[in-house]
Amino acid sequence: xxxxxxxxxxxxxxxxxxxxxxxxxxxxxxxxxxxxxxxxxxxxxxxxxxxxxxxxxxxxxxxxxxxxxxxxxxxxxxxxxxxxxxxxxxxxxxxxxxxxxxxxxxxxxxxxxxxxxxxxxxxxxxxxxxxxxxxxxxxxxxxxxxxxxxxxxxxxxxxxxxxxxxxxxxxxxxxxxxxxxxxxxxxxxxxxxxxxxxxxxxxxxxxxxxxxxxxxxxxxxxxxxxxxxxxxxxxxxxxxxxxxxxxxxxxxxxxxxxxxxxxxxxxxxxxxxxxxxxxxxxxxxxxxxxxxxxxxxxxxxxxxxxxxxxxxxxxxxxxxxxxxxxxxxxxxxxxxxxxxxxxxxxxxxxxxxxxxxx
Length: 358
Fold this sequence. Notes:
- The chain is an alpha/beta fold.
- It is 52% helix and 10% strand.
- Strands 3-4-5-6-7-8 form a 6-stranded mixed sheet, covered by helices on one side. A two-stranded parallel sheet has the order 1-2.
- Strand 3 (78-83) and strand 4 (86-92) form a beta hairpin.
- Helix 13 packs parallel to helix 15 (336-351) and helix 14 packs antiparallel against helix 15.
- The longest helix is centred in the middle third of the chain and has 26 residues, at 163-188.
- The two termini are 31 Å apart.
């Protein structure tokens, strides 16, 4: 698929071929990659800000490539190639992206999943990126499992060797996605609000301890939101959110009722001490909207969001909360990269904890 970490090295191969007089490399991709690159041209700045938050915790300047190596050949659903006498099967599945290809080598039964398997809760909910597709993702994983591959080479992480292990990893991940999808749609079909759905849906307990289904990059709550977006539009079921007052106006009124922004900030600090990070973030957001330059509000705000980042496990949440700490506290807030790294290490330690059947 057309994400930066998967395809943006193609130009280096092309440049090498020119320099050494070799035939140019032939790039084969799903037809959606072309549309993705066209979209990237329109949103270079926006993607730079997304990646600044997601991967660098707000440190530095937004960066995103402006040049793209387009594919030479595209396909729509499936394609079979012969490369050096080796049969290669390409198959399209919508999952993390709408332009994803997974690859199977039937001769030696090697499966290359790309990011449809990454040793993590599937990246089906990323809060800053375009639509993801949980149901189609699960269908694709089950189609892969039916081929009985012997080796799984993931988009990120170590390979899995042995047909039984590969099948279990693929089918467990499919079941995880199917459960979150089915729970979300069942609640939507009852007319419940997004708030009720995201605070109720939980992945199956028997799968949540799997080392390859830990929330170290994405997490189930975000997947629920993406399923809602796919089926339900942007209205979340809370009437005041349809045409809301500005957040600043809301914060001004809440601060007036609470006794001022400092009172809100003080209460945020109390909630933080009590471990109620979610409420602490609401409170400090209101205080900061009203008094963005108040030193006390800024200090407490940075403290709240750095603590929130340190308590999270997913790269998505850690990056956004670290960025928020810097946005509120200014350049005096440091170490956001360390927060991202240390949080991922903690999640990795949880992932590596042995379970009864692994």
